[in-house]
Amino acid sequence: MKKINILSASLALILFTSLNANAQFKLSDIFKKVTEKSTTTSATGTPSTLEIGQGIKEALQIGVSAGADRLSVKDGFLGNLAVKILMPPEAQKVEKTLRSIGLNSLCDNVITSLNRAAEDAATEAKPIFISAIKGMTLTDATNILLGNKNSATEYFKRVTTAQLIQKFSPIVTTSLSKVNATKYYSDLTSQYNRLPLVKPVNTNLTEYVTQKAIDGLFIEVAKEELKIRDNFSSRSSTLLQKVFGYADKKKS
């Protein structure tokens, strides 16, 4: 009888262990399916106002970082035809005249140095943009998401231009001297102003380069904004897919 009891207890233990293992397997399987379903569907649906704010801020931080980084390296301006800084408008006739008499290198030096100054200044842009993103309200975010394709760029123009000018101007002034832009431009205008019957040219290079540098930044930010709005593969997180997928549906 004792042996039978021991045998029965052993069988019961084996059966319990088997059932428990099977239950754990099923629970694990169910949890896995629920998790997979959650992951699959989390990028769809209507985002909350908070999610819209978080998604817009994430997208803009990625965009402004990429745009500012591209411009703040050597040839970031000079090698990019969309933002390359040319001779000031009032000096373009000067350039044409001087090139016609063989002073190409002088003109090239001026253009290169103007772009180098802008590249120096661009290194200071990112913190200003990031600060503007952090200060963005949920209403700002929603308006940007559901607005025009350049709504974010227009927002940045509105809230950062004054700060960018204030920050860029002293950097541009220093950079213009460092890369000899001031000297090159002075040489160029002096050569031109010596010519008979010409109207003397005087340009505030700091103001000119500062404005062109800021214009270039906004051009690059606009590119990044358009990319994330129009290109699904640029939506690198579930949150971005949900937020901008919702915007796509609202606008369709």
Automatic annotation (TrEMBL):
Pfam family, one: DUF4197
InterPro entries registered for this protein in UniProt: DUF4197
Highest rank taxon of the organism: Bacteria
Keywords linked to the UniProt accession: Signal
Signal sequence segment: 1-23
The protein's name: DUF4197 domain-containing protein
Classification lineage: Bacteria, Pseudomonadati, Bacteroidota, Sphingobacteriia, Sphingobacteriales
